[in-house]
Amino acid sequence: MKTNVFSKFFILIVLVSFTPLLSAEDSRIIPLDMYLIIDGSESFQNSKNEAVAWINSQVVERILIDGDKLTVWTAGNSYSQVYSGTIAGSGEKREIREKLQALTVSGKTADFSGALRDAASAASRTPQDRLSYTMLITASAEGLEGAITGSSGGLLKWFRSEKYERWQVLIVATEIAPKVREAAASYMSSIR
What we know:
Blueprint: H1 2-17, E1 32-39, H2 48-61, E2 69-75, E3 79-86, H3 90-101, H4 112-124, E4 131-138, H5 141-149, E5 159-163, E6 168-172, H6 176-190
Parallel strand pairs: 1-2, 1-4
Antiparallel strand pairs: 2-3, 4-6, 5-6
């Protein structure tokens, strides 16, 4: 059991490190709970089409497989959940793509803090036999500043970013500290 926790943690790190290289053809067998937070501020308007095309191509089509769960929030002046479901074929993927295309901006700022807290709460309830993965898509420096310095700042202690011309993807590890401690303890007890 302890070795299993370490191997799941290792798989999570590999997934985080190589997101652009993954595809549905890869032989991932552990189901994934994906939490996606998308900028809903006016800053995102000029980047929306490019970012949504990337999400549809790299996340919806290449990473998500049947049995995975996806929850999507949009973060404008306030945040709201716009999709939550389990992938069970091309019908769900089509619905996700349509919902992402229909996203609209809803304010001058991006409330990433609220959406990050919801994603962290959901990630903390992810069963141990599943991977948990959180992505934040942003074009708003102002919204990101509030998320870093506000009450959700601890949720951004570890992340990886991929920058594009007018927007970026932050791979957020909301539950990384407990998993690192758990994996380290598992490893240490396995070598004793």
